[in-house]
Structures are given as C-alpha cells and as structure tokens.
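Write out a record, fold above all:
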Amino acid sequence: MRGRAPYLASVAGVVVLDQLTKRAVERSIGLHESRPVIDGLLSLTHGRNPGIAFGVLSEGGLPFQAVALTVLGLVAVVVLSAYALRVPPTQKLRLTALSLVVGGAIGNLIDRVRYGSVVDFIHVYWGTYQWPDFNVADSAISVAVVLLLLEGLVSPRR
C-alpha cells in the first residue's frame, strides 16, 4: 500500500464528487427535466440510464440486466483494484488512470445498487447533434481511457 495514498484519495474524490453532483441534480431537477446552462451546447438533464456508459444497452430491457450490470461493475472494481495493487508506484500515469476508472465504477455502482440504473445529468448537444447524457463517474472513466492511450503512445516498448 506504500505510495498509494494519492490514488486512494483520487478514487474517493471521484466517488464523492460524483455522488454529490447526482444528489444535487436529484434535489433540484425533476426526472426528465432539463435546465439550460449554455444555450445550444450544454444543459443539465436529470435522467436515468439502465444501460452502460453513454446509453449503450439503455433500451435493451434484457432479463436481469440491472443485476448483471451491478455484478459486472463489482467484478470490474475488484479486478482493477487488484491489478492496481500490482502496478509499481513509479507508474504514476497508469495508477492515476486506474484510480479514475475505479472511482467512476464505484460511483455508478452505488447508483445501480440504489436504483437499478445510473443517474445521468450532463447533456451536450450542438443543433440537432446530441451526445448521450453522462455524469462525473463517466467523465472520470473517459479521462482514464485517454490517459491509458497516452501512456501507450509515450511509454517505451518492453
């Protein structure tokens, strides 16, 4: 566990920020309601996503989908956490990315346990082009993917 405190703090920070923003949206915006932030670009829209990131499987209605996705999320958190413990502390970029993924997965897992779906609220659009709604946890996971791609591009081959 030596040298891992900043990464544990990152996991906790993502979870706390994710849950605080979701609770604020739930308290201030009715389900399926929207509040413009930047006209023509960004609004806060309180929605629920029964699928996975960016609406994938949201219309699936598969039997036991909520349970399956909850179990899958839990397995992902355990596997990624175990892997992160094996990554040397010198690999800061990889550990940062893993902490963002784990924090995001935990944030969305909390919602799945509470509601059987994930609270999404960030709605980005340009004219008729719509990006699927997302949340802080999804954002953390997306940033982590970019970091891992950058690591793959800049790290020396072994």
Residues 5-50+63-154 form one domain. The radius of gyration is 17 Å.
